[in-house]
Amino acid sequence: MTDHVWTTRKDTGVKKLDKADLQRIDAWWRAANYLSVGQIYLLDNPLMRTPLSKDHVKPRLLGHWGTTPGLNFLYAHLNRVIDERSQPALFITGPGHGGPGLVANTYLEGSYSERYPQISQDADGLRKLFKQFSFPGGIPSHVAPETPGSIHEGGELGYALSHAYGAAFDNKDLLVFTVIGDGEAETGPLATSWHGNKFANPATDGVVLPVLHLNGYKIANPTVLARIGQDELDALMRGYGHTPYVFTAGFDDEAPESVHRRFAELLDEVMDAIAGIKAKAEKQGAQNAERPMWPMIVFRTPKGWTGPKKIDGKVTEGHWRSHQVPLSSARDTDEHLQDLSDWLSSYRPDELFDDEGRLLDDIASLAPEGELRMGASSYANGGLRRIDLKLSDFRDHAVKVSEPGGEIAEATKVLGTWLGDVMRDNPDNFRIFGPDETASNRLQGVYESTDKQWLGDYEPNDEGDPMARVGKVVEMLSEHQCQGWLEGYLLTGRHGLMSSYEAFIHIVDSMFNQHAKWLKVTNEIPWRSPISSLNYLLSSHVWRQDHNGFSHQDPGFIDHVVNKKAEIVRVYLPPDANTLLSTFDHVLRTTQYVNVVVAGKQPGPVWLSMDEAIKHCTRGLGIWEWAGTEQPGENPDVVLGCAGDIPTIEVLAAAKILRERIPDLRVRVVNVVDLMRLQDAREHPHGLSDREFDTIFTADTPIVFAYHGYPWLIHRLTYRRNGHDNLHVRGFKEEGTTTTPFDMVMRNDLDRYHLVIDVLDRVPGLSSRYAGLRQEMQDARLEARMHAYEHGEDIDEVQDWVWSDSGDTGKSKGGPQTTGGDND
Amino acid sequence: MTDHVWTTRKDTGVKKLDKADLQRIDAWWRAANYLSVGQIYLLDNPLMRTPLSKDHVKPRLLGHWGTTPGLNFLYAHLNRVIDERSQPALFITGPGHGGPGLVANTYLEGSYSERYPQISQDADGLRKLFKQFSFPGGIPSHVAPETPGSIHEGGELGYALSHAYGAAFDNKDLLVFTVIGDGEAETGPLATSWHGNKFANPATDGVVLPVLHLNGYKIANPTVLARIGQDELDALMRGYGHTPYVFTAGFDDEAPESVHRRFAELLDEVMDAIAGIKAKAEKQGAQNAERPMWPMIVFRTPKGWTGPKKIDGKVTEGHWRSHQVPLSSARDTDEHLQDLSDWLSSYRPDELFDDEGRLLDDIASLAPEGELRMGASSYANGGLRRIDLKLSDFRDHAVKVSEPGGEIAEATKVLGTWLGDVMRDNPDNFRIFGPDETASNRLQGVYESTDKQWLGDYEPNDEGDPMARVGKVVEMLSEHQCQGWLEGYLLTGRHGLMSSYEAFIHIVDSMFNQHAKWLKVTNEIPWRSPISSLNYLLSSHVWRQDHNGFSHQDPGFIDHVVNKKAEIVRVYLPPDANTLLSTFDHVLRTTQYVNVVVAGKQPGPVWLSMDEAIKHCTRGLGIWEWAGTEQPGENPDVVLGCAGDIPTIEVLAAAKILRERIPDLRVRVVNVVDLMRLQDAREHPHGLSDREFDTIFTADTPIVFAYHGYPWLIHRLTYRRNGHDNLHVRGFKEEGTTTTPFDMVMRNDLDRYHLVIDVLDRVPGLSSRYAGLRQEMQDARLEARMHAYEHGEDIDEVQDWVWSDSGDTGKSKGGPQTTGGDND
């Protein structure tokens, strides 16, 4: 890492801004605007050295002009500042629609052609640059993975600031210049992401500089923040912990030089203020650094600035009509063609590009050099910065077991002790993000090595809590914020995980979608280096929210995830503490995946020794011979499948009943850790071949499968398998409430007694022979329910294998809660 | 509706607050707190008239104390205000964990026992009240549907204020008292929902009074808003458009009377301010009413207020340790049992309840009467207030077709014209909510009858835009906000729909979950009246986001929805304008469902006359004889199934090719509108019986099915069908980018040419006989792609049936965009 110094402009010793400086900035801006308009409209004649004809215009005009000139303005000015202060910077484009702008700027600075040599810095390259934009076989219209310098697509709005803070954490030298559209500012995730400043340390983290791009309009409406008084807007920004610097331009005839001078001076003032904050924090020291009022910029300019003032008599510049493609008939009507020609000419391209189509040297000199160019920043291609985690031996944290189920452990708590080691050994590039649930999910072991980073106020009562101004756990009650932070952290080359309740991870369904899409596309871009996988640890899962009730019970995130490309998604359901350890050791080593790990936090049996667990996890699924009753060389009469910790308990309990009550029944027990193993090898890289599947599940034996989530997912994964017609799945069928843990499984027919009945019903001949056992099972269910309804707890029989502690009240530990909240 | 007058206290003529008033409030508060603690801990001995023993304590202690005393305090004070001013009010409990508090208050006011007579207002009722809480067979721990007066569960946090504004719209007499936990305040949806005040009209809508319950802690962390300076918090609230009234209590030894007096006076001041705003708006008139700075209350009190100060030497009151069950060993240790006994006794139950266990009359008199009791409000049981929509004849808006596909229409635009009628005829109880996409989704016809409600500032450029201070379309760029508003609107007895892009509706996956769960539970509660269905109109769908690219392409919301209970969810894919009309006429008449309707906004063929469309929609699916080539009485050689507008176009084009090129092939075309028809009749009320399914799809003929979304959903819905082994599904397989519309379908092998190849591959004998046709189809695909890559648009051949206008640029309309934004 460079030994960067945050300097005031005075410190840099550069000369006072003069006219030439401002003209250079203006020329860059015009060039970027020209290239932006060119990309949206032109198929050919990129330098306009001949009169524009209809053939030069694209047949389908696709793109978004409205936000683009503002982005270009900011990029131009930032170039100067970065260059003068040697300031590493990342440009986050909240209004991702402004794709043409970011492409234009990275092309002008040269970083684009370095990535895409065919888009050369000459007339031919320009022509290709224009044609490819939003064109079949070309590049997307947004600031997509294809765009150099981007870690943020901005197609779905709301995450610019969360990504920015994620990028800034532990990158103390980095300026994250973050443009927030005023449309985006209306989204929920963005509205809360301003509070990221309560979690960023001015000494050890980078600086997020938010720019609220107040251009006034969305697709077809004014924006809220553009239509409240400036006093309210100021108050809002101050309330968010920022000092607003307000800049307004473009609404009158102010000369360009004056506009640029005002903004350049404002930007210097802001950068100087940041340098002051950094210097103060340095002096206070990281452990004592106080949260400052960080600067932010309100950038109020017209939508479609510099574009046509009116089209067909209707106001266009400064109106939502500029949002997309204002001159939509440029190829169809002479009038619009002329308008387009006038518009392009207004940027005076002849003063910008030479006869070969190269940007004039003086203008090009505005850009910083090398990696300081924002399109060339390694921060925006995080895989380049990524260093493998140092992972200590997880086997040291194994739960020692003498026999299957002989030991009881809280799986996530055991994992937490090892994660504590990981945090100790990787203090600068591994973080855990979570919505106030790290301790509730029993990962408190990490606090042996680190703290929760907190830059809010402190109170005397905080003593004893693992809060500090520097810490690698970051908790805010917003899944959006946590997810965005983690994404930004990973995209800039680091590692981490998100810990959440299973039900509420649906809150970020759409963010997961976008990240999975990003990964899919980057896999196809050679210059994008692989980044660390995004890891979810989902606990407090559907079967152990009996005390919080129905609203907290939902296992559907897995279903959502498996809709995405097979090469991206992985789902693990480790049944105990040791398999969870092994699973996490694996996922923390992977790149370019989304790994979903669902694990229990309650005390539960440990079934496998560490060595067995490693083997089992490596295979992803396997027959547990010790749990079944089949004889070598014989086919089983029934296969009991299970995936998930609670289904595994119930299946093993059912197998025990069958073993005792029908000793001659040949039962095979199969446990699945890696859910994708069930899918066809042709559909998922982890998928079993049909032959392998048949070897394990057989092609013709009844299978009773107890699954953690919605049962139909297992059908979906296996519908092409030979044995599918014999497959009977139990899972969560949306029957939940506040009750006891065992009543929860009974309500969904996933309990041991019902599984025994399922076996009796499905293995030919058993039903009639064992009518008595069937009745007994039904009676047992009734008894268990009656007991729960009367006494409020489960009967002892089903408390074997650890139902007893599930109430989250610490009861069986014989003491009050003292280590973090338990459950929300 | 009552002819309510918003009054200042002075206007009401009630006497000045005296000591007795304040004592009554305090007594109510103590009673509510006592009942809350009792619910969490006690199995018996509800009046503590004998010494507490371990047997009186529940074996599993489940619930949340922390937020409860604050809620109880607010409820007590609000009782007085409601009573004095005859003010209809709804209490929205953002911190839904405070379930015991709301149960306690509604019990005290009598509305609980009216709903649940077995929970009588005597000692026996008290015992049952205590036992049932968070107990198997009892009631949930949250403010759930079972709780009288609730429209908001609050298990998943973030939606209290959106629900509140939804409830307030068009309920001008209603006060929506909305408690927001400071944990919830950190969520994204809540953070933006404050801006609801820019959409509420002070004359025609009700009043939302937000109370930020600043008790300082979440599960295991302090909250952000409690740990910023009061100046920042004030600024934030002012920035949100509110005047904050700050109340702090509980951190010192202030006498209860003084505490109550201060809050009572503050609440009167706030209510008087509201009355002033209402009076002013009345004077200005609805069309000119200005957005005021609405009051809000910052309510800073200790978490677990009045609970144990310390437990085992650790600070508990005013700390996160109060979040859940602070005395978790009350049944296990003498010390904790004594603590519990002391805690309960501190409320002096003997002064609150008589020997029979009835609340003393004087205390009970604090509650208002009848429906003014918040637990008895019909606003909170909206089905009681619901009036069927007046629906004019949608057939008047039908597109007249002479032959299938003979007319071209934009389906959603046609729907919009009829919805305009609906809005005209139901001006007070029908609204459309959307994230800035109503016009983009082509529903602009509604602006013939109404406007977009907008209380932000106006500018001269707004002229001509359908914005007004009163309007029934509400647009803010937050799917969360729109969904929350719609839910609140429906839950209080009105009708509406949400219009959104298909891909981004995933943003509210989790909100949908919670609403679906709410509906499922209310179905089981006799006193809950049915509310209108929640209707989604999803347009700008996966196949027509070719210009916005991959980030905008996702059809997975349907998959998400069908995980919920079959009796709740309905999914429709009308293939054209007339079927869309018929579908919407149906869904607007339904109750207690979530209806998902996916429809195109681009010009597309109209296949069916209105009469045919009605019949087709009534059946939900059907054979389109005119499109196929089967002979009466003969079985088809192949079935081409389709669901969705684009798949329908491609299937019909494929059928045409087959008709022309293999005239003797007997092809059956089946179109599916109601997706749930595919499911088994035993699994979904709309499901076909196996016999019906076989009649339509056959049991043994190859089926090539072109589906709008992810193909495996069709497998999931049909895996038990006889014909399933012959079913081959094409759909979106996550291959998207910025390209042409036809390239989009080609990338996913859903195009007509590929469907023909699929038929050749699947009907025995065809593959070898028609090798030439196969090659031709492959050539046609190649040619179509090459053309697109070269020219940027689709070839004419595939532009039949309306590809041409899909670029959203208005090109083929030969003019510029003038009617609202087109696409984001």
Automatic annotation (TrEMBL), chains A, B:
Keyword terms: Lyase, Thiamine pyrophosphate
Annotated Pfam families: XFP, XFP_C, XFP_N
Superkingdom assignment: Bacteria
GO biological process, one term: carbohydrate metabolic process
GO molecular function (one): aldehyde-lyase activity
Known EC number: 4.1.2.-
Xylulose 5-phosphate/Fructose 6-phosphate phosphoketolase N-terminal domain ranges (all copies): 17-384
InterPro entries documented for this protein: Phosphoketolase, THDP-binding, Transketo_C/PFOR_II, Xul5P/Fru6P_PKetolase, Xul5P/Fru6P_PKetolase_C, Xul5P/Fru6P_PKetolase_CS, Xul5P/Fru6P_PKetolase_N
Cofactor(s) named in the record: thiamine diphosphate
Keyword RNA-binding (UniProt): no
UniProt xrefs under PANTHER family: PHOSPHOKETOLASE-RELATED
NCBIfam families membership: PRK05261.1-2, PRK05261.1-4, PRK05261.1-6
Name recorded for this polypeptide: Probable phosphoketolase
Organism this protein belongs to: Yimella lutea
